[in-house]
Amino acid sequence: MKCAYGLPVILLLHSCVSGPSNSESPREKKDSTVTAILPLGSIESGQIRLLSAELSAFYGMKIRILPPSKMPESCRLKNTQRFSAPLMLKWLIDRKPAGCNRILGVSTRDIFTQKGPHPHWGIFGLGYKPGEACIVSDHRLKQFGNKRDTFLTLVTLHEVGHNLGLPHCKKHPSCLMNDAKGTARTLFSEKKWLCSNCRLLLTKP
Question: How far apart are CA 167 and CA 154, in angstroms?
Answer without folding.
Answer: 15
